[in-house]
């Protein structure tokens, strides 16, 4: 069963091979992004600062309009400085995602095979585990959430069709996780994340001639996590709804506003009475896109509110910044700069924080 992703990938390459001299599209991109958060009350929270340097990369090859392959991943270095001033770090590749897509009926039906290649840094020391846990915190919107989860494979199907005056789409997928040894100090401990089911439905509709409204609903469910073959933890299901409204903002500009809500049900450890409380997250924001010389400027604002019971992490984050795009030869260069501020609460402690993100991405290839 674990060879299935490579079978999918080989099938896609075999179909694409004879067409290599007549490429429909080749695209590639990479970037470098630096994020830092500093906490005003390091003594209370136990953390002075956290940083993340991420180098993402992606390559896509469309052999035909109906057959495509995509490879994506990242290298990242994270560090945190506890209140005692001793820096903790971890660095390495994340897991790499390989996707093979097969479209039918003029893109109305799409089958996707997914392989999560275990290239990531998934075996952690105690210090690395502290860094990884902080990067995964929901209240801090880092570009990655983990370095590796042992890999896996899966598939999804999606379909789209007009429904009256609406355009509708639905997708469903299932990902099977692999077991791995997460603890560097105890390699006899074998952990297997629960398999994941996701279902998403979307509707959009034109409003007049210059606007479009969209609604997206999604559901995720998880099988029980296992440790050394025994049930360990049952993660709670997740429900999310997001609405957006895109519209023309003058003769040459466009804008979008959005809002969303995510509910994560409580989780339960199987071998003890410890319960991970439910959490709710509210997302909102907006942005505008307008030409600037030969390029495009896109300022934006976003808000994240995370709430739960007294036992759950909570907080808020406000971000303001901009990205830009400029053509340079056969490439597109996209710098980004963003400031963030907010507060984080957990385990009876609270601290305000300020953050910043700066980065540069570059894309190559035909569209």
Brief overview, please?
This protein has 367 residues and is mainly beta. It has three helices and 22 strands. The chain has a single domain (4-365), classed as Beta Barrel (Porin), CATH 2.40.160.
How would you describe this structure in keywords?
367 residues; mainly beta; Porin; five-stranded antiparallel sheet; 7% helix; globular; disordered N terminus
Q: How many DSSP E strands?
A: 22
Relative strand content: over 45%
Poorly predicted spans: 1-24
Count of individual domains: 1
Instruction: Please trace the helix and strand order, writing H or E for each element.
Output: HEHEEEEEHEEEEEEEEEEEEEEEE
Biggest sheet layout: 16 strands, antiparallel, barrel
Q: Which CATH architecture would you pick?
A: Beta Barrel
Helix amount:
under 10%
The CATH topology annotation reads as: Porin
The helix count comes to 3
- Morphology: globular
Mean pLDDT: 88
Name of the level-1 CATH class = Mainly Beta
User: Span between N and C termini?
Assistant: 35 Å
Summing up helix and strand content along with how strands pair, one would put the structural category as: mainly beta
Describe the strand arrangement of the main beta sheet, using strand numbers: 1-2-3-5-6-7-8-10-11-14-15-18-19-20-21-22
Question: Radius of gyration over alpha carbons?
Answer: 22 Å
